[in-house]
Specification:
This protein is an alpha/beta fold and 501 residues long. It is built from 21 helices and eleven strands. The model is unreliable at 148-153 (pLDDT under 50).
């Protein structure tokens, strides 16, 4: 689902803010519809298909909270982001309870809102994908005891899980399948942190988000921590038969009713837990359900193990390529240390605008390899002290595509490919290799473009002297909306990268 295919409804009684948000969202490629009152927003929702709603809380007439409640009654899956200048913990908690995806306090930075929108869109895609998976399951939504052909059902579950390659999608699918099969309303997957030896929640459905964020279960401690270390399922029946009493944190996780906890392990190495809780009143876990969830946990363990192996292989490739890039840059005094410095600028800037740790990790790897394609560019072109000829410039401009050609066959982090390919695009569409503009350019590529340009301008070249940091920032400011994204570029100038190195 591309941004151009998404429609966002923005609701606020402030026409100035409506105009600002509309401009920012449209620059990112989203379709935008606006309403100045909650009643008008409901009319639009009745008449048009909308993918996301952004609404102020405090408005005359129908308030944002009332609008949120009506939206969730009509369409539980429609993500809603609420914003207000009247911040309070109670208001935030109430908004989340009513089903809001996120909560933003005015005044806010446009980039923060755009990132929240991007994450909401990603979550919506994942939920739609999971919904499709559940539709694929067919008759598995009926009570387990009423199913015919249990072996066939197990085969279908295994087929659906194993045909997906992405680890996040596999584990999310396992959660949804576990709920569908058992009739429970809560499920979670906790993964073991190798350093702390604690199980930390990574994926969940139905649980309180604050509980999930704070929950830690120590391997080998407590009923659950000690039980899973033995690679055995834990249920209410197991507690009763062995006179075991759960601790306070464990009760918060599984509740007072029936539950089932399956260890996720592979070749005696434990990776995590699959937790299913809040079963229908009076229901007990059957042996058949335990067998099915055991299969699901095995599928999860295989997926996690493969993911870890892939990560190790990928890291070896990345290290090798980073060494090659460093060696390439070291051959030319003009570019020595360039990728390293670009990585430092980009990471610090990403922290400044509060990107997630996952985004920063992708960004760092992309920076290290953004010029990998220059390996195939002749040395005399890379180190030429005078202006390049048209033919030489054409070869130089081919390095992003050459980089992609190097990385794609290796299967290295598909997330960095768009950054390597598009870090020389321009906001006005006059960059290369794809002539992308504004909202078409990947966000992280825009960020690398700024860091790359800043380092290039402030570095000595054989054909020109280095600019000062202030001169480079002034050049960036002069090209906002032309070469650089205006919102991100303004943030970069405010960030002031000269203080980083």
């Amino acid at each position: 689902m591309n941004p151009q295919e998404l429609k966002i409804l923005v609701v606020d009684d402030d026409p100035g803010l409506l105009e600002t948000l509309t401009d920012a969202l449209e620059l990112e490629g989203y379709g935008v519809t606006t309403a100045r009152a909650g009643e008008e927003a409901l009319q639009i929702l009745d008449e048009e298909e909308v993918d996301l709603v952004i609404t102020d809380i405090k408005m005359p007439g129908l308030s944002g909270m009332e609008l949120l409640k009506v939206i969730k009654e009509k369409n539980q899956s429609l993500p809603v982001i609420v914003m207000t200048g009247f911040a309070s913990l109670e208001t935030a908690i109430e908004a989340i309870k009513q089903g809001a995806y996120d909560y933003i306090t005015k005044p806010f930075e446009i980039e923060k809102l755009l990132h929240t929108v991007s994450k909401a869109v990603t979550q919506k895609k994942l939920e739609e994908k999971n919904k499709q998976l559940l539709e694929d399951l067919g008759d598995l939504n009926k009570k387990l005891e009423e199913k015919i052909g249990q072996i066939f059902a197990l085969g279908e579950v295994s087929n659906i899980v194993t045909r997906i390659q992405d680890l996040d999608t596999i584990l999310q699918a396992i959660i949804y399948i576990s709920l569908e099969i058992t009739g429970a309303s809560k499920s979670a997957i906790l993964l073991l942190d190798g350093m702390s030896k604690e199980f930390v929640v990574e994926y969940y459905k139905g649980f309180d988000s604050k509980l999930m964020a704070a929950l830690r279960i120590k391997l080998g401690r407590g009923v659950i921590g000690a039980g899973v270390q033995k690679m055995k399922p834990i249920s209410r029946k197991v507690l009763e038969e062995n006179n075991l009493v759960l601790g306070k944190d464990e009760v918060e996780l599984v509740g007072e009713g029936e539950f089932l906890i399956m260890p996720i392990s592979y070749l005696n190495n434990i990776f995590g837990l699959l937790v299913v809780a809040d079963f229908p009143e009076g229901k007990r876990v059957s042996d058949a359900e335990i067998n099915i969830l055991n299969i699901l946990s095995r599928q999860a363990s295989i997926a996690i193990n493969n993911h870890y192996l892939y990560q190790k292989l990928q890291n070896k490739y990345l290290t090798t390529l980073e060494v090659l890039v460093s060696a390439l840059e070291a051959k030319c005094k003009n570019t020595k240390g360039h990728s390293y410095r670009v990585g430092i600028y980009a990471r610090k800037f990403a922290e400044f605008i509060k990107l997630s740790s996952d985004e920063i990790s992708i960004l760092e790897k992309a920076c290290a390899l953004h010029d990998i394609g220059k390996i195939v560019i002749p040395d005399y072109i890379l180190s030429k002290p005078s202006k390049l000829s048209d033919g030489e410039m054409e070869q130089m401009r081919a390095h992003p595509l050459k980089g992609v050609e190097i990385l794609v066959p290796l299967g290295i982090m598909k997330e960095i490919i768009p950054v390597v390919r598009n870090h020389h695009e321009r906001f006005d569409g006059k960059g290369y290799p794809d002539c992308l503009k504004n909202g078409e350019i990947p966000f992280l590529a825009k960020l690398v473009t700024l860091a790359d340009a800043f380092d290039a301008m402030t570095s000595l070249r054989s054909y020109r002297k280095a600019l000062t940091s202030q001169e480079a920032l002034a050049e960036i400011e002069a090209n906002l909306g032309v070469q650089f994204d205006p919102h991100l570029g303004a943030q970069f100038i405010k960030f002031n990268p000269q203080i980083v190195l």
